[in-house]
Amino acid sequence: MLSRSFFKAGHTPTLFAAFLYFDLSFMVWVLLGPLGVAIAKTFHLNPAEKGFMVAVPVLAGAVLRLVAGVMVDHIGPKKTGIIGQLVVMAGLLAAWRLGVNSYHQVLALGVILGVAGASFAVALPLASRWYPPEHQGLALGIAGAGNSGTALAALFAPSLAQTYGWTNVIGLAAAPLAVAFLVYVIFAKDAPNRPAPKRLAEYLDVLKTRDAWWLMALYGVTFGGFVGLSSSLTIYFNAEYALPAVTAGFFTAACVFAGSFIRPVGGALADRFGGVRTLSVVYVLAALGLAVASFQLPSAWVALAVLMFSMMALGAGNGAVFQLAPQRFGKEIGVVTGVVGMTGGAGGFYLASSLGWAKQVTGSYQGGLLAFAGLALLALVGLTGVKARWRRTWPELSPAAGAALRL
């Protein structure tokens, strides 16, 4: 996958800085999920409250991605990333020093963590603008593998909370962010082909395009499933299989690592076989995995295997969607990344909150998982219906016209 032409085509220091910034931002974005068992014990939360708690940062991140996308086009991705990182570090340190003393304050912290989730709309354009169409899938897959930061939270947060208390973990999280911030400031560089900023009203033009809405819907399923599960699995394994919070965190980390590190593979497969073909397979596999996971499996280990399979399918789908986006919207990639990322976060909010609601109402997570499996199949039907038009019209509409598009 990593050919000599790939390294010659882009800017490797920027790609690494984008990955690290994205990775550690995602670590804190989902921090309430791995800390959820401890927080729920402190404030005596029911399943619906736990589900909503972990969903709030996801929704806040979804909305703020649109804001970040507009900022990227106006002031550039590097400056936008610097502002976002400073806001998150200040929020974490303030929460640590002042304390988090109620459920409503936890939700307020979740909104601040949403700024970290908006890093998606910064890191991907930062990397994308350095690479030609034939390497977009792999470049954005590598930058997007920062999804793995959610695994770091699941891996370390529960054990640190057990040792130092969950409020202190909030302060500790600022330390690795500071390291990523320094790397970002030193190595990240805006690409020279940055498009001229548009008037605010012009950004709405993207939403007048059917293709943008299709990409938003497709990513709402792949990334929505990924981040919704990333936020919820520690609580899920603890509630369904009575695993201790630390063990549940390890299981969650395994699922997230599987989904994160296959994202570049999904992008590379889309570069080779086409994003449409790759996504078609992804949706079938994701729906199958989520449907099987919805049943009470005989052990936590079996559930782990099935959920890892599901997360790998969703992770590959994330890479495939962002192989397609810059081929159609290269000149508007900043705002398109924002709106597409927004619906991805919205899908994650839906899954995380619906899992909590299903558990509260029915005593089982099955309804939430089956509903999302149905959304994956619905996305497959939509993609099947639109792919012929894309293959006919995109070579003329794409700013990369003349290059061989892989659809």
TrEMBL record:
Gene Ontology CC, one term: membrane
Residues of the Major facilitator superfamily (MFS) profile domain: 13-391
Intracellular or extracellular location(s): Membrane
Segments passing through the bilayer: 12-32, 52-70, 82-100, 106-126, 169-191, 212-235, 241-262, 274-295, 301-321, 333-353, 365-386
Coiled coil: none
UniProt entry keywords in alphabetical sequence: Membrane, Nitrate assimilation, Transmembrane, Transmembrane helix
Any Pfam family hit: MFS_1
Record-level GO BP terms: nitrate assimilation
InterPro entries with a match to the protein in the record: MFS, MFS_dom, MFS_trans_sf, NO3_transporter
Record keyword Transcription regulation present: no
Signal sequence, renumbered to the chain: none
Membrane topology: Multi-pass membrane protein
Family: Belongs to the major facilitator superfamily. Nitrate/nitrite porter (TC 2.A.1.8) family.
Protein's name according to its UniProt entry: MFS transporter
